[in-house]
Amino acid sequence: MWLPATLSLLSLFAQDVPARSDVPFPASENKKGLQVQMVDDALSLGIGHATLNVLLNGVLLSAGGAGETGIPWTHGETVIRVSGAYLAPLDRDIKALSDAGCAVYLILLGNVTGDAARNALLLDPDRDEAPRNGYAGFNAHLPAGKAHLAALIDFLAARYSGGRFGDDHGHVHGWIVGNEVNSHGHWHSVGPLEVGELTRRYEAAVRTVHLAATARYKNARTYISLDHFWGRAFQPEKPKQYVGGRAFIGAFAKHAKASGDFPWHIAHHPYPENLFDPAFWEDTTATDDLGTPRVTFKNLRVLGRALAAEELHFEGESRRVILSEQGFHRPGSEAGETLQAAAYAAAWKLVQEMPFIDAFVLHRHVDHSREGGLRLGLWTHKEGSIATPDRKVLMHRVFEAAGTDRESEAFAFALGVIGETNWRDFLAPYRFTAQAQRAPR
User: Fold this and answer.
1) How many Cα atoms sit within 13 Å of 39 on the Cβ side?
2) Most buried residue, 10, 63, 358, 380, by CB count within 10 Å?
C-alpha cells in the first residue's frame, strides 16, 4: 500500500527531470569528518566527510524583492529565485570537497531575516517573533511552504548532482534538516508545541527534502538532527520547548509510518555533558541504560541499541547514523590544549568501535568568538576577529594522525590524560555489542 503512494509522490518531484544521478553514496571506512571552513586545510587533514551550513533564506530571494535579480527556477507550479551570490562560495567548496572523494552533507537552516516576505516562503508562521539564536522551523506542513521548500531543494539537488543536470558544481550526498530540533526552543523555533505536533511538522519537512533530493540523486540520504539530551530534555519543565531525543525519535517514527515510511536517518550530537569540560569519560548523566539522560561519547552504544529496535527499522534495516556536530572545549592553558586533544583521541577510538556510525564530524575548524566562550577549533582565531584562523592547536596534529599509520604515536599521550595504560582497557566498557542490522553501503 505504501509503495504505489510513494512512487506517485516521487513522480511529482521528478517531473521534467531528464535523468536521476545513480552515483553510489561514497563508500569509505574513513569516519573522519569536519565542519569545513578552509577546504585546503581540511583536505590536508585526510577527511572523508564534510558538512557545510546553508542558510536557506540566504539562498532564496523573495518575489519582487529589491536587489539581486537571482536565478529563476520552476518546480511544478512554483517559481522561485535563487541567489547566485550566496551560491558562489558554496559551489567552490562543494566541488573541491566532493572531487576529493568526501561525502558532503548540507545542514539546512531556516534563518530568520528582516525580510518578512522571504521568511513567509519557508518558515513556520508560529515561530517566535525573535527566535533564540535566529533559527526557525520550516512550514512544509502547509501547502505553500511545502511547495517552496521542495522547489528550493530541487534546485540545490540538481545543481549539486555532479554535473548530471548542467554545469558541474560538485556533489552533495546528504541533507541534514535543521539543527538540534528536539531542543526547538533554542534552534528550531515553531512556537510552543508538544512533541506530537512538533514532530508532525518536522516530519513533513524531512519528507519533502527526502523526496526532492532523491528525485535528483537516487542515493541521497536525509537526516534528522538531535542534540545529546536523550531520556530527558534540556529543560524538562518546558515540554513545549524541549524534548528528549528518545521521545522525539519515537514520535517522529510514528508520523513517518502513518504517511508511508521512508529512509530517514540520524544526525546526532554527542557533546560532553558539560560543554566546557572535554573529559567526557567522567560524564555522570551518560549511563548505559536506554533511558539515560544524555547520550555523549561515553555511552554512544546506547544510541546503537535504541536504533536496533525493529519498530525503528526501515525495510528490516536500522537507520544510519552520523555524528554531524560535536567538539571539545579547550580550557585556556597549555594543559587545556592537551586535554582537548586527548578528548578527541579518546572519542575517535570509541567511534571506531561503533559499526553503526558512518561519520564523526568535528565542530569546529576554527574557534568562533560568538560561541558563548567555547574554544572548539583545530585553530585559534585572531584576536578581534570572529573566526579568522590564527594558529594550529595540538588537536590539529592529533586529528591529522587519526586513521593513519601515525595514530598510535600521536595518540599515546592521551592515555596518561585519561588515566589508562592502554586503549584496550579504556575501550572495554564502551564497546558496542548489539548486532544491529545494516544496509549495504
Assistant:
1) 16
2) 358
